[in-house]
Amino acid sequence: MDSPGSSESGTGLRVDTTGCAVDDLVYCGAVQVAADSAEPWDGIVERAVTEGWLGVEALSGLPGSIADVTLANASAYGQSVSDAVVSVRTWDRSVDRQRTFAAVECGFGPGTSRFTERLADGSRRYDVREVTLLLKQGDLTAPIRDDALAARLGITSGQRVPLARVRRAVLGD
């Protein structure tokens, strides 16, 4: 049974909103989203925008699963997957056991993470099983700092806009 404030989406997502009131400007007003590795990334972004969870809206339209974008630490328009990651649960093939890494242990860098490490036979050392994200709640984005995105939105850098507007601009709608 889920705890109060927790919900199962039926699609490989667990959402926890316990403990804090909603406040657009602090992490206390946040949701924790645990996603199965095979969950389509853009489906997570779409739900985040619909629910008013900010932090990944500019990453709309990225292909692949949450595991794919986490492995590559995908980024676009000033946002990176690593900005929202709390932890990554893996199967470590080198020791044949499960390992969970906190965000600071994930070795995120531009276009990479520790999860791209290879074994001597060329196979990936880590099989990503679940990624947990922490997303603030609110109706507006953080201040837009990416000049290309600001231009697409018709705003000046530093302004905030509704989440859905960013998603539409990124997807070209």
From TrEMBL:
What broad class of enzyme is this? oxidoreductase
Q: Does the keyword 4Fe-4S apply?
A: no
User: By its UniProt entry, which InterPro entries does this protein fall under?
Assistant: FAD-bd_PCMH-like_sf (IPR036318), FAD-bd_PCMH_sub2 (IPR016169), MurB (IPR003170)
Tell me which EC number(s) this protein carries: 1.3.1.98
- SUPFAM superfamilies the record matches: FAD-binding/transporter-associated domain-like
GO terms for biological process, alphabetical: cell wall organization
Q: Name one GO cellular component term.
A: cytosol
Query: What is the superkingdom listed in this entry's lineage?
Result: Bacteria
Keyword terms, alphabetized: Oxidoreductase
One annotated GO molecular function: flavin adenine dinucleotide binding
Give the protein name, as stated in the record.
UDP-N-acetylenolpyruvoylglucosamine reductase
- List the source organism: Occultella aeris
From the broadest rank down, the organism's phylogenetic lineage runs: Bacteria, Bacillati, Actinomycetota, Actinomycetes, Micrococcales
